[in-house]
Design goal:
By secondary structure, the chain is of the alpha/beta class. It has five helices and five strands, in the order βαβαβαααββ. Helix content is 41%, strand content 19%. The relative contact order is 0.17.
């Protein structure tokens, strides 16, 4: 049976949807808005779990109406929660950058894609330091209205910088 590791936000309540959609052995790590910081303890734990369970696939998943990301873009009611200040600043920068470089009808999907691409890059960097065969890592956004998972925008679209000659 295939095994898959998911980084999710507890406010999305998405574990049952993932379990019903993807019939496999699933493992989860939760953090508000996928704001996880990959410090040495987290990376060591993750590496041990990946090796022990022979997990070859990792996904970062958020719902399209994630409460934490939405709050970071609007009211900032949860900004006093320990550790979310930097995350809120990052989301605001990604929103501002998306407005500068991309015209889209679905800005929320673009901002979520920026964020998840950033977390994917961060995790890849950390796993490369471990000299292990890296697992496949991707990002998905769950559309609650349509009840489907979609792949995030490519990292080629969600660039931090652009250069025009």
């Amino acid at each position: 049976m295939q095994k898959h590791f998911y980084f999710i936000c507890p406010t999305d309540h998405i574990e049952p949807v993932i379990n019903d959609t993807f019939k496999q052995e699933n493992y989860y790590f939760t953090s508000l808005g996928n704001s996880i910081v990959f410090d040495s303890d987290v990376v060591e734990y993750l590496n041990e779990l990946l090796q022990a369970r022979n997990i070859r696939n990792i996904s970062f998943v958020l719902s399209d109406n994630n409460r934490i990301v939405s709050d970071a873009l609007e009211q900032k009611d949860y900004s006093r929660i320990t550790g979310l200040n930097g995350f809120y600043d990052q989301i605001a920068r990604q929103r501002d950058h998306s407005e500068e470089v991309w015209q889209t009808y679905n800005r929320q999907l673009l901002i979520l894609s920026y964020h998840l691409n950033s977390k994917i890059k961060e995790l890849r960097r950390e796993l490369e330091c471990l000299s292990i065969d890296p697992p496949e890592i991707n990002g998905k956004i769950y559309n609650r209205h349509e009840k489907v998972f979609s792949t995030i925008y490519s990292d080629l679209i969600c660039r931090d910088h652009i250069s025009v000659n």
